[in-house]
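For the sake of clarity, the format in which proteins appear in this thesis is described at this point. Each number in the token line that follows is a code from a learned vocabulary of backbone shapes. One such record is shown here in full, so that the layout can be seen directly:
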Amino acid sequence: MSEELIVQVKQLIIDSLRIDGLNPDEIDTDAPLFGEGLGLDSIDALQLVVAMENDFGVIVPDAETGTIVFQSVRSMAQYIAENRK
């Protein structure tokens, strides 16, 4: 998993969730995405699932997998790197 992919994932979060005024370098790679950290919710998760499928061809098949994938930017990037088509 490259640093470039981590930056791409951060930009994906910003673009797909339309978070104005946030730069990729302001997002902590290892911070939780839900609750603390970015404070995302279930609607945000659905938007990220669609964005990951559109941008990377990666499918998150179920909620159990999503819980693992959406722990942090790093876990998202790792999942994309392992499952990218």
